[in-house]
Amino acid sequence: MEALIFDSHAHYDDEQFDADRDELLGKVLPEAGVCGILNMGADLRGCYDTVALTEKYGYIYGAVGIHPECAGDKLTADPSSEHWLEALRKLLKKEKIVAVGEIGLDYHWLEACPKERQQEVFAAQLELAKELSLPVVVHDREAHADTLEFLRRYRPQGVVHCFSGSVEMAREILKLGMYLGIGGVVTFKNARHAVEVAKELPLDRLLLETDAPYMAPVPYRGKRNDSSLIPYAAQKIGELRGEAPETILRAAAENARRLFGLPA
């Protein structure tokens, strides 16, 4: 089988993979045609774990950053007592850490972190990405207008992952030169925005992703997601566009390598 699956957004450091992580990453996924994975840090512990995964598996690369839900009072110094931003700066210089992520805004669970704090941490990480000339992986949940404002202000390279906005917002993000990540949501019955965006999105701006262990596609919705299930999203996107799933998979893999500066 030709290895065409590049998962541009996953969380294999998540505890849901503790029981079989080595078997899955070492054998199952490569045999299923997975050629690349970009693992996401969400908090400082996850960032260190992401670096460890990149050092253990040749086809895994990493992004490190602070997710908006993790940006509240619990965001303190790392184990070496450095400020969190300095800890990130050091991790971002590791060989296989290729992006700042997962960062952004999430207004769905504001009790986890208030808007003002989320925006402060997001801005600091956008500035860090600019300083280090690295792309970003952006989380946007129920914060479309503010997310777009930050992207226009800082104009980063990168991707808005698990894109949930309208076609109109997609067009604005594309104007900024960014990519859009689409995953299992496109297979859901109520996924009107994802379907509309998938139809219109230029093929050279599409990234495929899982958000594993979350957001598994139909017919696995509600179960643990992993990178081997990406073809279900590619199949749906291909149907919407009148293109072969292999075309979608190949283009998305090429786009991921181009955006994150990875070897072919």
Structure description:
By secondary structure, this protein is of the alpha/beta class. The chain has a single domain, classed as TIM Barrel (Alpha-Beta Barrel), CATH 3.20.20.140. It has nine helices and eight strands. It has an eight-stranded parallel beta sheet with strand order 1-2-3-4-5-6-7-8. Helix 5 links the parallel strand 5 and strand 6. Helix 2 runs parallel beside helix 3. The longest helix has 18 residues. It is globular, with a radius of gyration of 17 Å. It starts with a strand and ends with a helix.
Summarize the structure.
The chain is built from nine helices and eight strands. It has 264 residues and is of the alpha/beta class.
List the defining traits of the structure above.
TIM Barrel, alpha/beta, 9 helices, 17% strand, globular, 264 residues, eight-stranded parallel beta sheet
